[in-house]
């Protein structure tokens, strides 16, 4: 038991989750989101893109059991630890962090539900509307929402083609957004 908790297996699992999370973060930080598609390059805009890519990862592994389910849980835990750490780096006090975390968790799960619903119904317009509500709530119009919705559909198919055993080995690839 101690070997499993403190040994090589735990270190290997950590390396896999670190590799996967690094790829999710890198996908969320792709330049076209912020330059061509006008996603705000702010902490909240970056949270939105990270949330979207975490959703795509979680959506890919939903319904799986065993190692994929464990990895999905480890990654969502890592995501929320990263958000917590980011809030502290932004200067949010120790007293304020739990309140903000609760709000951000509620935001994340609300978004994932609307994104999942639109993907499952293959409803491009509904997904674009959800993205606009979440990513650019300040804008009365955001034509790039349709481009981002198209990317989400492409990314969803792209991730679906990646074998679970590859993902469980730390291999994960997102498509590059194709800005017009």
TrEMBL record:
Top-level taxon: Bacteria
Entry-linked Pfam families: Ubiq_cyt_C_chap
Every Ubiquinol-cytochrome c chaperone domain range: 37-172
Family: Belongs to the CBP3 family. Belongs to the UPF0174 family.
Protein name, per record: Cytochrome b pre-mRNA-processing protein 3
Organism this protein belongs to: Aminobacter aganoensis
């Amino acid at each position: 038991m101690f070997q499993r908790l403190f040994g090589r297996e735990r270190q290997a699992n950590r390396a896999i989750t670190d590799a996967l999370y690094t790829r999710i973060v890198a996908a969320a930080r792709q330049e076209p989101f912020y330059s061509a598609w006008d996603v705000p390059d702010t902490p909240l805009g970056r949270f939105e893109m990270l949330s979207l890519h975490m959703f795509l990862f979680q959506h890919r592994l939903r319904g799986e059991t065993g190692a994929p389910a464990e990895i999905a849980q480890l990654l969502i835990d890592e995501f929320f630890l990263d958000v917590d750490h980011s809030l502290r780096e932004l200067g949010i006090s120790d007293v304020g962090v739990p309140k903000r975390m609760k709000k951000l968790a509620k935001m994340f799960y609300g978004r994932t539900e609307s994104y999942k619903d639109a993907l499952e119904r293959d409803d491009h317009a509904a997904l674009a509307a959800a993205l606009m509500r979440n990513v650019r709530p300040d804008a009365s119009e955001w034509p790039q929402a349709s481009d981002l919705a198209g990317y989400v559909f492409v990314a969803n198919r792209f991730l679906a083609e990646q074998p679970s055993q590859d993902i469980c080995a730390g291999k994960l690839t997102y498509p590059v957004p194709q800005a017009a």
